[in-house]
Design goal:
The protein is α/β, with parallel strands linked by helices and 683 residues long. The two termini are 47 Å apart. InterPro entries: ANF_lig-bd_rcpt (IPR001828), GABAb_receptor_plant_PBP1 (IPR044440), Glu/Gly-bd (IPR019594), Ionotropic_Glu_rcpt (IPR015683), Iontro_rcpt_C (IPR001320), Peripla_BP_I (IPR028082).
Length: 683
């Protein structure tokens, strides 16, 4: 308020107002050309703070600030910076400047009941040290908490009582970085000497950054006055009203416009860094990130507008915004090196009511275990439950929930999946978790998450061996054409050998019947080489042409016999399994009975495909489905079943040798979790 008042006076009298301590961003909104801020705007540090929040993956942060212009001025900029990294501000904790210890304790206890454990403190040291002392007393400086302090405290850190350092263990601080230089060291040495002469009772006094900004501000003003060659300071008097005050007697400076022009163009290397005013403001500076540990503080990194977070300042220029930020080792509250996850399960709050279906079969997805005495659910397990638990564990904030079975008092299912969805619609459950398929008519009442399983409805049918084995199976390997062709070649080879041998080989002579029998016997005996191994067979070929014919024929016979043996072996050992039903239209024509899982939306789909009510049979488990297939459609069973792919995969995993899936596959969106939030928003 004082700065605002003085700036208005300077604007009225055309006198430049140079401040080295007014850090509130709200002063920028005055847009006075006569106001120069020779200090860092509080809003310049919000990017460094948001970079820390992003580096550790925190998704929520609570600002704790004093209820004046100094405290409130930074909050809009801090909120925007956190939103840019997808971090949320769930609550703003305002501490009155005149707050008692009891008021501070009440506010901190309120924060303890919330799930967020990341706090950003922006207040003067006088109030901040009291807040941290109380926070330590009530247990908020233990493991799991993360505290970030703005330069509102850290710039005046050394002015605080050294005894308060114990309550700040593990805190991260942000403050403007001042590079060491010969000019700075020389100035500090001269200042200490002068200060010690004027105040001999004060020992080890140090000049804080505001003193350095004050020196640079005075230096900038002196350079500007020299540049405009001001020899006198004239003011034009204004008229005074009859009821005027002393403030109304202020004149208007003749040199003000030239002086602000000179200040705007002044550039030099000051004690705190490069001094250059852009629209009356210093450019954003480098910020130090330090960790309070032990009896002091330890530097863990830097933040620059160009490169973000970096472990070393000289390496920051070479890094990119896509590099993973690197900070030095940090000792967090509770004397731990593990970064806090940023949230804890709140001590109070509403639990999400999670409805789960109750079913007899396919318990791999959802299984509810009951206490036989009290009939109360003792545990809820299954694949769907594991997926939901994993999703909730990966959330960046705490969500408490409990599973409530959708069942009657005796532990039986209270209805179909559509009934469970209607309970979510009515508000009995906040969420429904289970093997619930995403279909369009259900989406009119509730909202679904993305699917987490394979989608589709398929048909499953029994399989059987199409080849019937009998005594004549040995004729199957060769076709009748091949059998006849082989027999003709046996006769032909016997005739060729007789033609070549009967004139020179006595074994092929004699009566015509003997010669014919010997020739045919010789050609057939080559199949098992009986003419060489059988002692009763004495026929030999002596003609080279006949021997050549026999060699070629033996090679052909060898290929023929090996092929026959392989084909016969395959027929006798390998099953030729084929589905009993290949087309859904076949089921409709023959009016065969088909099965579907009880409570499933598949019943409506089958009725839409023109299946009669008398053709539909319900089942609850894989075992019951197998029994229905074993009976057959004519004996009260089924010829085919329709169900979703995840269920069918479980069924085939258990009965893989008896059944197979068939096209077509009807498209669905898979299993998803049900929520009511979007529905409530729409209503």
């Amino acid at each position: 308020m004082e700065a605002n008042f003085v700036i208005n006076l300077g604007n009225k009298s055309h006198v430049p107002i140079i401040s080295f301590s007014a850090t509130s961003p709200s002063l920028t909104s005055l847009r006075s050309p006569y106001f120069f801020r020779a200090t860092q705007n509080d809003s310049s540090q919000v990017k460094a703070i948001s970079a820390i929040v992003q580096a550790f993956g925190w998704r929520e942060a609570v600002p704790i600030y004093i209820d004046d212009e100094f405290g409130e001025g930074i909050i809009p900029y801090l909120t925007d910076a956190l939103e840019e990294i997808n971090a949320r501000v769930p609550y703003r904790s305002v501490i009155p400047s005149s707050a008692t210890d009891d008021q501070i304790s009440k506010e901190l206890y309120k924060l303890m009941t919330m799930q967020t454990r990341v706090f950003i403190v922006h207040m003067p040291p006088s109030l901040g040290t009291r807040l941290f002392a109380i926070a330590k007393h009530i247990g908020m400086m233990n493991e799991g908490y993360a505290w970030i302090v703005t330069d509102g405290m850290t710039n005046l850190w050394r002015l605080t009582d050294p005894s308060t350092i114990d309550s700040l263990q593990g805190v991260l601080g942000v403050r403007t970085h001042i590079s060491r230089s010969n000019a700075l060291e020389d100035f500090q040495s001269r200042w200490k000497t002068k200060f010690q002469q004027d105040n001999p009772t004060i020992i080890n006094a140090e000049l804080n950054i505001f003193g350095l900004w004050a020196y640079d501000a005075a230096f900038a003003l002196a350079m500007a006055i020299e540049n405009v060659s001001m020899t006198n300071f004239n003011f034009n008097k204004t008229s005074v009203s009859s009821n005027g005050t002393d403030l109304e007697t202020f004149g208007v400076s003749e040199n003000g416009p030239q002086l602000i022009q000179a200040l705007s163009t002044t550039k030099f290397r000051g004690l705190t860094g490069d001094i250059h005013f852009v629209n009356g403001q210093l450019e954003s500076s480098v910020f130090e990130i330090f960790n309070v540990n032990g009896n002091g503080e330890r530097m863990v990194g830097f933040w620059t507008p160009e490169s973000g977070l970096a472990r070393e300042l000289n390496s920051a220029n070479s890094s990119t915004t896509h590099d993973k930020p690197k900070l030095g080792p940090i000792i967090w509250p509770g004397d731990t090196t593990s970064p806090p996850k940023g949230w804890e399960i709140p001590t109070s709050g509403k639990k999400l009511r999670i409805g789960v279906p109750v079913k007899d079969g396919f318990s791999e997805f959802v299984k509810v275990t009951w206490d036989p005495n009290s009939h109360a659910a003792t545990s809820v397990t299954g694949y769907s439950i594991d997926v939901f638990d994993a999703v909730m564990a990966a959330m960046p904030y705490a969500v408490t929930y409990e599973y409530i079975p959708f069942a009657t008092l005796d532990g039986k299912s209270a209805g179909t999946y559509n009934d469970l969805i209607f309970q979510v619609y009515n508000g009995r459950y906040d969420v429904a978790v289970g093997d619930t398929t995403i279909v369009s008519n259900r989406s009119r009442f509730v909202d679904f998450t993305l699917p987490y399983t394979e989608s589709g409805v398929t048909m499953i049918v029994p399989i059987r061996d199409k080849r019937r084995k009998n005594a004549w199976v040995f004729l199957k390997p060769l076709t009748w054409d091949l059998w006849v062709t082989s027999a003709c070649f046996f006769v032909f080879i016997g005739f060729v050998v007789w033609v070549l041998e009967h004139r020179i080989n006595e074994d092929f002579r004699g009566p015509p019947s003997h010669q014919a029998g010997t020739s045919f016997w010789f050609s057939f005996s080559t199949m098992v080489f009986a003419h060489r191994t059988n002692s009763f067979v004495r026929e030999k070929v002596v003609s080279n042409l006949a021997r050549f014919v026999v060699i070629v024929w033996c090679f052909v016979v060898l290929i023929l016999t090996q092929s026959y043996t392989a084909s016969l072996t395959s027929l006798l050992t390998v099953q030729q399994l084929q589905p009993t039903i290949t087309d859904i239209n076949e089921l409709l024509k023959t009016r065969e009975r088909v099965g579907f899982q009880q409570g499933s939306f598949v019943e409506g789909m089958l009725k839409g495909l023109k299946f009669a009510e008398s053709q539909l049979v319900k089942y609850n488990s894989p075992e019951e489905l197998d029994d229905l297939f074993a009976k057959g459609s004519a004996n009260g069973g089924i010829a085919a079943a329709f169900d979703e792919i995840p269920y069918m995969k479980l069924f085939l995993a258990k009965y893989c040798s008896k059944y197979t899936t068939m096209d077509p596959t009807f498209k669905t969106d898979g299993f998803g979790f049900i929520k009511e939030e979007q529905l409530k928003m729409a209503i």
